[in-house]
Amino acid sequence: MTNIDTEALVASPTRTPSPRTYLMCRPEFFTVSYKINPWMEPTKPTDTARALAQWQTLYDTYLRLGHTVELVDPIPGLPDMVYSANGGFIIDNIAYGASFTYPERQAEGPAYMDWFRERNFDVRVPENINEGEGDFLLVGNTILAGTGFRSESRSHSEVAALFGREVVTLSLVNPSFYHLDTAVAVLDPLTGDENANIAYLPSAFDAKSLAILEDRYPDAIIVSEEDASILGLNSISDGYNVVIAARATGFERQLRERGYNPIGVDLSELLLGGGGVKCCTLELRR
Ligand code: ARG
Fold first, then answer.
1. 279 CA distance to ligand 1 centroid (A)?
2. Is 273 in the pocket of ligand 1 (CB under 6 A)?
3. Which residue in 277, 283, 284 sits closest to 82, CA to CA?
4. Shortest-distance Cα residue to atom 9 of ligand 1
5. Which atom in ligand 1 lies closest to the alpha carbon of residue 40?
6. What is the pLDDT of residues 220-238, one digit of tens each?
7. Per DSSP, which regions of 3-66 are E strands?
8. pLDDT tens across 51-60, in order?
9. Mean pLDDT over residues 13-33, rounded?
10. SS3 of 95, please?
11. pLDDT at position 2
12. Fewer CB atoms < 10 Å away: N or C end of the chain?
């Protein structure tokens, strides 16, 4: 007797990729010279050439998938500038600037805002500390907003007023997952809340935030501690192709089961600074 697995059929709908535009920053000056997250170990040597080569693979992967990648010039003395996700949060051509938590990264805020201004984005200088798409994730029409380690919750209200969208505050509790994009992956779609789905690491959140996630995303992919611990969640989806850390094999399997096309990229060198695929990528929504 043929046993038709209806659940598998329901769980694997057709996924449709959509072209995106990303901003990236070549890690020419990448190193770990200070420690602002548990991943960073300034005494441990880094290999800038290796970081550049790995970053190039990510860049080439986006082009191969049909995405557009724009570049901001790296600035000497700002080794974390490669993590462009933190440079701002952009929807409908409005660029909400970043205001960094730690002095080591503060100069990046104005540098990114200058870049946005030169490209005719409507730049809004932030009133509150926030680290851009590190802590703000657009899921359908909803903005998930992280706080606890970096972005202040007051920036969440600022973003809600600025973009006229619902902002859901989520509190992070594990210092290793200090930005929301290390604990949540946005899977789809571009617009609309219907069928919008995410993947996340439950233990990264306080009880209240976890209850919100469970309620809003009952079909979410729950990733393992093992995959999350190499920043496997720090990934970029176009609705079908999901660029993830090559070592996140469990997450890779989960994505495949759901009809996504996971593509592994090795960014081990950039992991030394506490960042992965998503950290190196800022979506430009014009
Ligand atoms: N060293 C950087 C920091 O601690 C890493 C930023 C990672 N970016 C991200 N979007 N999670 O700020």
1. 6
2. yes
3. 277
4. 279
5. 1
6. 999 999 999 999 999 999 9
7. 21-24
8. 999 999 999 9
9. 95
10. strand
11. 45
12. N
Find how far residue 127's CA is from the centre of its chain: 22
Ligand 1: residue of 58, 179, 281 to mutate (most ligand atoms within 8 A of CB) is: 179
The structural domains of the chain, ordered by start, are: 13-283 (3.75.10.10)
* 3 CB neighbour count, 10 Å cutoff: 5
- pLDDT score for 12: 58
Which residue type sits at 233? L
Does residue 275 have its Cβ closer than 6 Å to ligand 1? yes
279 has catalytic annotation: yes
Rounded mean pLDDT, 9-38: 90
Q: What is the pLDDT of residues 122-135, one digit of tens each?
A: 999 999 999 999 99
Judge if the beta carbon of residue 274 lies within 6 A of ligand 1.
Answer: yes
- Tens of pLDDT along 153-181? 999 999 999 999 999 999 999 999 999 99
Q: List Cβ neighbours of 135 (8 Å cut-off, separation of 6 or more).
A: 145, 146, 147, 150, 151, 155, 179, 180, 181
Q: What is the pLDDT of residues 256-275, one digit of tens each?
A: 999 999 999 999 999 999 99
Choosing from 25, 67, 156, 179, the catalytic residue is: 179
In the annotation, is 25 catalytic?
no
> Which residues are registered as beta bridge partners of 182?
none
* CA 87 – CA 73 distance, rounded (Å): 13
Closest C-alpha to ligand 1, atom 1: 273
Predicted local distance difference test score (pLDDT) of residue 190 = 76
Closest protein CA for atom 8 of ligand 1: 279
